[in-house]
Amino acid sequence: MRRKGKWLSCTGVEDCTPHPQTQPSNVDSVIPIALCALTTTATRDQAEALARGAIENRLAGCAQVEGPVSSFYHWEKQVATPQEYRVWFKLMPAQAPTLRKWVLAQHPYDTPQWLEIPASYVGEKYLSWLQATSTPSPSSTDNHS
Fold first, then answer.
1. What pTM was computed for the model?
2. What is the pLDDT of residue 135?
3. Contact 60, 116 (CB under 8 A)
C-alpha cells in the first residue's frame, strides 16, 4: 500500500506501518487502499444500469461509463470485434466481493469481463471522499438487488 509516497505493510486495513523498501518484495502482504474495477457491456443502457445500480446500492463510490470502445478477442473460434461500453468502478477493498457478486449477477454477458486493479496511490482528499461515499448506510445494507 502507498500513502504519501511510501509503501505500507499491513496486516489489516487499520494496522499499517511504513515499509522499509520502495516497493515491498512480498506483494501478498500489501493491502491496496482503493481499487478500480471494470467490465464491459454491449450497450450504453446496460453499462449505465450497472453503474447506477452499484452507486444506488453504495457498492462503489464512483462509476464511469466510457464508450463505445473497440474490443478485439477470440470468441467461439472467431475473432470478435464489437463496439462495447466500459464501466469503471472506484471502491474500497472491503467492497470488492460484494460489488463483484452483484455485477456478475446483473451482467447481461454469459462470460463478463471483470478486473479488479489495486490503486498504488490515491490522493488523500479523494480517498476520504471515496470512503465516505461508498460506505453503506444502515438502510441500504440489505438492498443489494
1. 0.74
2. 72
3. no
Q: What is the pLDDT of residue 29?
A: 53
CATH T-level fold of 33-133:
Alpha-Beta Plaits (3.30.70)
DSSP-derived secondary structure for 12-52: ETTEEEE-SSSS-S-GGG---S-EEEEEEESSHHHHHHHHH
**For helices 44-56 and 96-106, angle between their N-to-C axes, nearest 10 degrees:** 140
Domain locations in the chain as residue ranges: 1-31, 33-133
User: CA-CA distance, 9 to 23, in Å (whole number)?
Assistant: 10
State the DSSP H helix or E strand holding residue 59, giving kind and residue range, or none if neither: none
Q: Report the C-alpha gap between 46 and 67 in whole angstroms.
A: 12
Residues of the chain with pLDDT under 70: 1-31, 136-145
User: Rounded to whole angstroms, how far apart are CA atoms 104 and 89?
Assistant: 14
